[in-house]
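Feature request, filed as a ticket because there's no other form

It would be nice if the structure record came with a short human-readable summary line next to the tokens. Right now we just get the raw output. Example of a typical job, pasted below so the devs can see what we mean:
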Amino acid sequence: MKRVFFTDFDGTITKIDTTDAMTETFAQNGWQEIIYQWEQGKLNTRQSAQLIFPLLKVNPDEAKRFLLTIPIDETFQDFVNYVNSRQEKLYILSDGFDFNIKTILEKNGLNHLEFYTNHLLISKNEQFDIETPHASTCDRCGTCKKTLVQKLKADAEEVIYIGDGISDVCGCQAADIVFAKNYLLQYRKKQGLPVQPYTSFADVLNKLQNM
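Raw output as currently delivered:
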């Protein structure tokens, strides 16, 4: 059976959400209410980012050094090896930023992986802004994961989605099998939707091998 895999990045491949970690570390007070408004759906990803950026007191070099300290799931490489051994496709879908993803994937020798996310714009005077090349008419997220899954699954017979957060709720609707933790797991359970709980990619790999 030909399968295709889609995985979230922040809090899924990485052990913590990189954007949240940067905000908590470098942003002045006021960001908490902005995040709350985003979680409640009162602000979309673009709006919340543009409100938080002026509060960030960090330059790109400092941000990169900070990102290099964020660990990834130690078993993710084993999962990548498994997908490669089967000659199947793996895509990273994120409502975060390419700057974060590139930095961390390169550090871990995984920069060959294909990803779709928001673009972090950095001006000459080191001010940040956001570009959302994968948004949809819904405009809730900067990256519409559901649209990307439908587009990228091609002729795969089975779609497998791995995620943990709010931005994964729509994306996994287009999947046959959903691995979830944290917010996504609780949401799927509450809605009575089929879900495979996981803690790490070792769990995902073990379940896949036994299916």
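Something like this underneath would help us a lot:
The chain has two domains: 3-15+71-209, 20-67.
The radius of gyration is 17 Å.
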